[in-house]
Design brief:
By secondary structure, the chain is α+β, with helices and mostly antiparallel strands. The protein folds into two domains: 229 residues, 3-Layer(aba) Sandwich (Beta-lactamase), CATH 3.40.710.10; 124 residues, 3-Layer(aba) Sandwich (Beta-lactamase), CATH 3.40.710. The chain has a seven-stranded antiparallel sheet with strand order 2-1-13-12-11-10-9, with helices on both faces. A hairpin with an 8-residue loop joins strand 10 and strand 11. The protein starts with 7 loop residues before the first helix and ends with a helix. The relative contact order is 0.18.
């Protein structure tokens, strides 16, 4: 890091949160106009002695999702699949879906699906299944079956996951409604089957290997470098996953909805490669497809507040569409992670923390506001 940092205001914001006890640990990385700065603070474990360093490992949670979009387009470039392909080509378990006759209605009141689900539907989160958060019978059944959205991958093997999903109706007809999370887990199974190899192997071959991201994977490469993860619990913090927890063990389900572990530098390098045109992973044309808003006005409306104001959805990545906001694309994760690129400003920035989202005080917007004031 430069001895005289342009982003001293940003680092001060983060250090104050560590000093206040609100943020047990963090790692941030910023690239602006060819110069990269990395900053870390706090400890791997709350109250511990081992400090967070540049090679500390964090659970990305939903910040894993853009990797799913990139890997899908990489395989499309290789001719392994096409976005218009029906998913039943690789996922026959999902044939014959039925759809709730009315939103929030009983699970037995259904109509046939009007068309098949495609790979593009999975990429755009419009397949008809996903997180509802409305207490409806379908929402309750989804959670009870272990299919709900969460900070980690499902604790089910892929075959059991698909079987349980196929036993439920869709919440909406394919293409009608934006619903979060489940599409990415289904896409993860599809990518492994389409490539004929485990998802971790395909990700290494096509994305992380070419980019030299040695610390990005579905488990901590070195458990000694893994941080703990916490969630707010009133005025205190509760342990979500220990430094020797889920992220330190081989996964039951290799999923890109929330399954990756990485360093801040690895995430920065991933986003920076896309901002620089995609090489050696994607062509510039595929990067443009990835980061172009994919939703119709109606689909965006169905997302409600789940997509932040001024943000739409590309292919497994958020895209800013409000001219009054900083531009670019990226996403956030529920374990307290955020990574966005703004090519117009030649800016890529990542913040990985050990404090998950639990309320308005956990908004990482303060990081971005401070960062943009420094530009």
């Amino acid at each position: 890091m430069c001895s005289l940092s342009r982003f001293v205001t940003v680092w001060s914001v983060l250090e104050q949160r560590v000093a206040d006890g609100r943020l047990p640990g963090y790692a941030a990385a910023v690239r602006h106009r060819g110069t990269t700065e990395v900053r870390t603070g706090g400890c791997l474990v709350r109250g511990g002695r081992d400090p967070v360093t540049a090679d500390s490992l964090f659970r990305l949670s939903s910040l894993s999702k853009p990797y799913a979009g990139v890997l899908t387009l990489a395989l499309a470039e290789d001719g392994v699949l096409a976005l218009a392909d029906p998913v039943t080509r690789w996922l026959p378990e999902l044939a014959g879906f039925r759809v709730l006759a009315a939103p929030g209605g009983p699970l037995t009141d259904t109509v046939p699906a009007a068309r098949e689900i495609t790979v593009r539907d999975l990429l755009t989160n419009t397949a008809g299944f996903g997180a509802l958060f409305d207490g409806s019978p379908l929402d309750v059944a989804t959670v009870e079956r272990g299919l709900g959205a969460g900070p980690f991958s499902p604790q089910l093997d892929p075959e059991e996951y698909l079987a349980r999903l196929a036993g439920l109706p869709l919440a909406a007809q394919p293409g009608e409604r934006w619903l979060y999370h489940a599409c990415t887990d289904v896409l993860s199974v599809l990518l492994a089957r389409a490539a004929g190899r485990p998802l971790g192997t395909v990700l290494t071959e096509r994305v992380t290997g070419p980019l030299g991201l040695r610390d990005t994977g579905f488990r901590a490469r070195d458990a000694r470098r893994l941080t703990a993860a916490y969630l707010p619990d009133g005025a205190d913090l509760a342990l979500l996953d220990g430094a020797d927890g889920i992220a330190a063990r081989p996964p039951v389900f290799e999923g890109l909805a929330a399954g990756l572990v990485a360093t801040a530098g690895d995430v920065l390098a991933f986003l920076a490669a896309l901002a620089d045109g995609g090489g050696p992973v994607l062509t510039p044309g595929s990067v443009a497809v990835l980061t172009t808003p994919s939703l119709t006005g109606r689909q965006r409306e169905t997302a409600g507040d789940f997509l932040p104001a001024g943000v739409s959805w590309g292919l497994q990545i958020g895209v800013r569409v409000d001219d009054g906001l900083p531009g670019g694309w990226g996403w956030d994760g529920g374990t307290g992670t955020t990574g966005w690129a703004d090519p117009a400003r030649d800016l890529v920035a990542v913040l990985l923390t050990t404090r998950g989202y639990g309320g308005p005080d956990d908004d990482l917007g303060a990081f971005w506001r401070a960062l943009h004031r420094c530009l």
